Amino acid sequence: MSVEPSPTLPAQPAAQQGAHQGAHQGAHPTGHQAGHRAVPQPAAKPADPAADKIVVADVRKSFISDKGPLPVVGGVSLTVKDGEFVAIVGPSGCGKSTLMNIVAGFERPDGGQVLVDGRVQSGPSAKGIVISQHGSVFPWLTVRQNLMFGLNGTDHAETDAEKAALADHYAALVGLKGFESAYPHELSGGMLKRAELARAFVVKPDILYMDEPFSALDALMNMRMRNELLRILGEERHTVLLITHDVEEAVYMADRIMVLSPRPTTIQATFHVDLPHPRRLADPSAQALREAILKELGL
Fold this sequence. Notes:
The structure is a single chain. Strands 1-11-10-4-9-8-7 form a 7-stranded mixed sheet, with helices on both faces. The chain has helices at residues 96-104, 143-150, 160-173, 189-201, 219-235, 247-253, 284-296, and strands at residues 27-29, 54-65, 68-80, 85-89, 111-116, 119-120, 128-132, 207-211, 239-243, 256-260, 267-273. It has 299 residues and is an alpha/beta fold. The protein is built from 7 helices and 11 strands. Helix 2 packs across helix 3 and helix 4 (189-201) runs parallel beside helix 5. It folds into 2 domains: 43-127 and 207-299, 3-Layer(aba) Sandwich (Rossmann fold); 140-205, no CATH class.
């Protein structure tokens, strides 16, 4: 789903309407020695916005419940560098998706602020794209048509021929060459997720906001999609903020991993990942990092 303001949806054929829907060389825990449990850290001072792609400064959010206000985000401060891949892990229900929605501009914080490229994020922006587990392609459009629709209202392509050429380029980039004219129901689950990735990349976003994007896939396809994403990121520069329950996914992909506390969530620990790509999760350094993160999660 694009973070830019929602354009008018393409017309859906009537026949289809209603029918779809720390190791020493591996990681360095911030604020404590490797192998020791991290103590809660004070809120970080907002960094110089000009030096960071994303700055989250003391963001807080509560929701109204039958028992009164329910604090969900309890004062989160973080920064993400341009081109950095940051993963956020935390216990179920701690507020990870709420935090992502605030950073992407879909939710307004009760306190604090989010800056992207030094400007306050007051709503969804064309600078970022959300990729979630729920899917974002239109089932009544082909792969090519889905990608072309995402180009409407952008300056990346003007004519239909230019849009089609760009759509076909990104279809090929994610491994869908030869399936440009296929409809979503004709694709496997893995191919459909590739189409969703292509639909995000075709608009050339600065930031990818990824909320459990591969969680609905089986383990083998999940691993393949991780590799596919890393391959594309090796060819194109994007800043990535990933929300995940999967510690191994975070270890495999991220430059930095942040562990959230239970609700109201704060940043409990940060791990810098120094392992080169491609990574082997069986390596002692990767396993040590995994164990350190699980320890922070109380496991």
